[in-house]
Amino acid sequence: PAGGLALLLGVLLWRALHGAPLTELSGDQDFQLFLQRNLEFTRKIRGDVAALQRVVCDTFQLCKEDELLLVRQDLDMAQVPLEQCHRRTFQAETCFSQIRAGLRVYRGSLATIRALLPGHAGLVETLQLDMANLSSNIQQQMEDLGLATVTYPTENQDPLPTFSTDFHHQVGGFFILANFQRFLETAYRALRHLASL
């Protein structure tokens, strides 16, 4: 599915940069097929994150965000901006750069989840692989289109958040997954909007 997403993003970038109306593509069956496939791919990743959220809920009884907001203030949690993907004056280059930067941050912070849920390491690693592939596909498409890209080192150089207690580690894991789920919903909405044009 990642290859289809790369091609889709390439088409979208080209259209956005060259000012061609996306409505021209709405009748294109290949384009609609790419959108459908990649909506499914995004749903799969969201489902994997939701499965990890259920494990955190069942294992640590951490299920409701509003009950944990006070503890969150004590944690050093990275926020990943995606405002360029929300705006009506959508900037393709900046939006896709923000998505790649976000995927990199979340991919690194999933190591916190792997440490928290060692019995679910396989699912965490599958997620990390999906995210790495998506990020490199976006980079490849941007390079093909002559857009500015940032090349990240293959190993994640960002320090992992440190937690003073096991409870803070558990709550930190809860918020990493909750924030990542919101990040994915934004990407999903963007695809769905394009599919409805």
Describe this structure in words.
This protein has 197 residues and is mainly alpha-helical. It has one domain (29-152, 170-195): Growth Hormone, Chain: A. It contains seven helices and no strands. It is globular, with a radius of gyration of 18 Å. This is MGF factor.
Short description:
It is found in: Secreted. The chain has 197 residues and is an all-alpha fold.
Q: From the alpha-carbon coordinates, what is the Rg to the nearest angstrom?
A: 18 Å
CATH architecture: Up-down Bundle
Low-confidence stretches: 17-26
Question: In the CATH hierarchy, what is the class?
Answer: Mainly Alpha
Q: Label the structural class.
A: mainly alpha
Total beta strand runs: 0
Report the average pLDDT across residues.
76
Distance between the termini: 22 Å
InterPro entries: 4_helix_cytokine-like_core, GCSF/MGF, IL-6/GCSF/MGF, IL6/GCSF/MGF_CS
Main location: secreted
Protein name: MGF factor
Pfam family, one: GCSF
